[in-house]
Amino acid sequence: MRERVTSLNSKGLMLAHRELKKWYKRSGIYLLGLIGIFLLIGLLTSIQPAYRLSSSTLHTWTSQVDGSSFLRLMSMENRVFQGAYPEGYEDLRISEMIFQTATSIQPDDPRSFLGRELPGFSAYDGQIVVAGEGTNYTTMAVESAPPMEIFDEKEKEVVTEEQPVEQEDQTSPDQALPTTGDRDVVLIYHTHNRESYFPLLPEDATDAFHSKANITLVGDRLAQSLEDNGIGAKVDKTDITKKLKEKDMEYYESYDMSRSVVQEAMSTEADLQYYFDLHRDSIDKQYTTTDINGESFARIFFVIGGEYAHYEQNLKLANELHNKMEEEYPGLSRGVMTKKGSGTNGKFNQDLSQNAILIEFGGVENTLEELYRSADAVAGVFSDFYWQAEKVSGDQ
Question: Residue 121: CA atoms inside 13 Å, Cβ hemisphere, count?
Answer without folding.
Answer: 10
